[in-house]
Amino acid sequence: MWLLMSLGMLFLTTLVAFWVVRGGLEVADLQVAPGGLPLGAWLGTASLVLLSWVAEKAARQAGGARGLSQAAAGLSLLFLALQAWNWWELFAAGYGAGTGLYSFSFYVLTGLHAAHVIGGVVYQFHALQHSERADKRRAAAIYWHFLFLCWLLILGTLHGTASESGPLWVGRVFYGLAWGAAVGGVLCWLRTVQLIWKKDGLGFGLLGIFPLFSVVFGWVRFQEHDNLRVMILWQVCIAVGMLGWIMSASLLVP
């Protein structure tokens, strides 16, 4: 869980940095390759869809799932091959990393993702050697689901950046994320106050009305309250909310 959270923050901060730079540029300044995204990017998306589905099926299958684990390993290697094809196509067309922001971002974002896919390939082969272990198959499936979601964010970023309205719709997405995180944060706060009131009495419960107290006291007492998941989710909501408000303000406000 902590690994995925740290990787998620890495991908998110990289995308945010890109959009901060992109927001001040015109489409002509990006040096977008003709035709936009290469075909391999869409084929890679299809391979990740299949990979995520196969890995999930392997995780749910009772007993050994060697055949499905082998298929997952093969699909992960296929995705890497398609990424290599994408890079070769762009480079052969004269769009190296130094050509413009679009090419540079394509290599950086897809390269960062591919590096984590390589890590997933290593673990997938490890899980293949222990295909009878349901916990290892489940861990592999969760990791592939995570990388699939990251890929969708990268694909949307690269596809939308070539449009003049790209920063506008991305700003709206961040605005929606900010409100969603705010709602989630309020729900986590109410749940924490309820547990403080129930476990620690009326006095602490009244103090829990102040969110800062609830955050601190909730972490101090999370074991007694059995509330770790809610506290983690609350911190994620706070971080996403702050990021959403900052990014939406920078992209939507002239």
Explained architecture:
The protein is mainly α. It has two domains: about 1-20 and about 35-160, Four Helix Bundle (Hemerythrin (Met), subunit A) (Up-down Bundle), CATH 1.20.120.80; about 165-254. About 80% of the residues lie in helices and about 0% in strands. The chain contains ten helices and no strands. The protein has helices at about 1-20, 40-60, 65-90, 100-130, 135-160, 165-200, 200-205, 210-220, 220-225, 230-250. Helix 2 (about 40-60) packs antiparallel against helix 5 (about 135-160) and helix 6 (about 165-200) packs across helix 8. The model has no long low-confidence stretch (mean pLDDT about 80).
Protein topology:
Blueprint: H1 2-22, H2 39-60, H3 66-92, H4 101-129, H5 134-160, H6 166-200, H7 202-207, H8 211-220, H9 222-225, H10 228-252
Would you tell me the overall average pLDDT? 79
CATH fold-level topology of the largest domain: Four Helix Bundle (Hemerythrin (Met), subunit A)
Estimate percent helicity. over 70%
Distance between the termini: 38 Å
In percent terms, what proportion of residues is strand?
under 5%
Structural domains: how many: 2
What is Rg?
Answer: 22 Å
CATH-defined superfamily of the largest domain: Cytochrome c oxidase, subunit III, four-helix bundle
CATH class call of the largest domain: Mainly Alpha
Classify the secondary structure makeup into a structural class: mainly alpha
Could you describe the largest sheet, including whether it forms a barrel?
none
Order of helices and strands: HHHHHHHHHH
Number of strands: 0
pLDDT under 50 segments (min length 5)? Answer: none
